[in-house]
Amino acid sequence: MVSVRQGAASFPPPFAATSRQPIAGEARSVYGRTKENAERPVSKADIKEAKSGGIGEIVSVLVQALLIALVIRTVFFQPFSIPSGSMRPTLLEGDYLFTSKFAYGYSRHSIPFAPNLFEGRIWAADPERGDIAVFKKPSQPRVDYIKRVIGIPGDRIQMKGGALFINGEAVKREKLEAIDDPDITEAGRPVDVYRETLPNGVSYRTLDLTPNGIGDDTREFVVPAGHFFMMGDNRDNSVDSRFDVGFVPLENFVGRANIIFFSVADGASPIEFWRWPSVLRVGRLFNSVYE
Predict the structure, then answer these.
(1) 37, 57, 88, 234: which has the highest count of C-beta atoms within 10 A?
(2) Predicted confidence (pLDDT) per residue in 221-232, tens digit
(3) C-beta neighbour count of 215 within 10 angstroms
(4) If 0-12 CB within 10 Å is exposed, 13-18 middle and 19+ buried, where does residue 239 land?
């Protein structure tokens, strides 16, 4: 950041006559004036020229900074905030995280405002089971969702009695100690927690807020080619592929979630620094989103 101090402008006195010979290459100008006209008094035009030159330089620096930020956001990393509890206990409202844009290659959704410049993905790489990914909701392409990849093309996905089945096999599910922390569960009571381990070894925790909830028993979903089945870790409070999100095409993926760089509780804004002593979740700072 360039800090510009504003105050009264002072101008040098006219150059005094001197017998000293100018040094070769010596710059002798005042407000853009050359050596030949340096003897004349400073005019309003000179002052205006100097001010316009300073403003132009500031604008140039700002434009360059914005272009650099745009390139980083489009090609490398993009920050996102978590607005809902669908990924609890892994991600909480008030978490701010970085996603890697290059993890799955690039589609038009990788670019701000998703201009229709090309179809499909460039340098495409398929998401893997267990990835936490940001994507555009198929029915509302301007809306960003973040969920966990559960099913890949060709998989058969079903929920039975709260247990996840992939290709007819129950995913390993271990009950852990209940969590009694409203900041994590949004509930004023202990909530059951389970650890699931997918066939590729990725392990994570899920919440079971409501036994026999509406999403605990579903039909079997067959994931079509080029699409993925997404679910939230908060199984009873997640709008995902079991419901109206449906299958997510590869083209709609924005990036893979990586690291939490900031986190505040109680719906606080990150710029409300005076509330940080009571709302800042220090223990979540710079944590990976994967266990």
Answers:
(1) 88
(2) 999 999 999 999
(3) 18
(4) middle
Burial class (CB in 10 A: 0-12, 13-18, 19+), 118: exposed
Structure tokens at 269: 């804004």
Q: Considering the candidates 107, 110, 136, 147, report the single residue annotated as catalytic.
A: 147
d(CA 240, CA 254): 16
- Predicted pLDDT at 51: 52
pTM of the predicted model as reported, rounded to 2 decimal places? 0.75
- Has 147 been annotated as catalytic? yes
CA 38/CA 72 separation, integer angstroms: 45
Could you tell me the residue ranges of all domains in the chain?
80-288
End-to-end CA distance of the chain, in Å? 36
- Distance in angstroms (rounded) separating the CA atoms of residues 94 and 265: 6
Residue 191, pLDDT above cutoff 90: yes
223-266 confidence digits (pLDDT tens): 999 999 999 999 999 999 999 999 999 999 999 999 999 999 99
- Is 136 known to be catalytic? no
Pairing of strands 227-231, 140-151: antiparallel
Q: 167: alpha, beta or left, given left = phi > 0 and alpha = psi -120 to 50?
A: left
SS3 88: coil
Structure letter (DSSP) for residue 121:
-
Distances (CA, A) of 253 to 77, 101, 261: 14, 9, 21
Q: How many residues does this entry show for the chain?
A: 291
- State the pLDDT at residue 59: 77
Q: Could you tell me where the DSSP H helices lie in the chain?
A: 44-71, 182-185, 276-279
Write the CB contacts of 86 (distance below 8 Å, at least 6 apart in sequence).
146, 147, 232, 233, 234, 237, 238, 239, 240
